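Ticket #166: bound-state structure for coenzyme A.
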Amino acid sequence: MHRTQQILPTIRPPRAEDATAIWSLVQKSGSLDSNSPYAYLLLCTDFSEAGAVAEADGEIVGFLVGYRPPTRPETYFVWQIAVADAYRGRGIAPALLDAVLDRMLPLEVKFLEATVTASNAASWALFRGFARHASAPCFEQPAFPSDLFPDGAHEEEVRIRIGPLD
Ligand SMILES: CC(C)(COP(=O)(O)OP(=O)(O)OC[C@H]1O[C@@H](n2cnc3c(N)ncnc32)[C@H](O)[C@@H]1OP(=O)(O)O)[C@@H](O)C(=O)NCCC(=O)NCCS
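RESOLUTION: The complex was predicted; output attached.
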């Protein structure tokens, strides 16, 4: 679908056996909240259709996990996306988004959402780039202020909403 796919590792839905590798990528990402290994097991099984992994030489080098919020089924929410350091800048994250959206669009999904902290430049570049490539409007609004997190020890999360998507 895009320029990046000729050089990509295999992209496929996640399965239970991938959960530990995904959890490890999160630990190494340097910027993502770590959830429990059990949470990733659920995301790789019950939410497998809404996720994707990038596999190169039998190794998981990128992943995307998300879901459709029950009250907004026309929206696909990106919970977390990360690519291993050595594989960044090759279009793997956009390819993961494309792979999942190819599955979501026939389900009447029209919007992509995520929350991003102000300091996460790579994440902003990814989502704004995605909106640009999709020629879709991109809205930003406050999502979760710091005081909703324990001891306020978390940067504010800003919601980014992209769509409608074709
Ligand atoms: C954010 C992160 C996942 C990006 O992964 P990546 O595979 O290195 O992403 P890339 O840089 O190759 O892709 C972004 C580029 O794709 C472009 N792009 C976006 N959508 C695209 C699409 N559909 N088709 C083609 N290109 C697209 C963007 O414009 C951007 O290009 P630019 O850097 O030239 O502006 C990675 O930096 C990471 O793992 N960071 C740590 C974890 C994190 O912060 N995750 C996000 C919060 S959940």
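RESOLUTION NOTES: The pocket of coenzyme A is lined by residues 2-4, 29, 31-32, 80-83, 88-94, 98, 120, 122-123, 125-126, 129-130, 133 (CB under 6 Å).
TICKET STATUS: resolved
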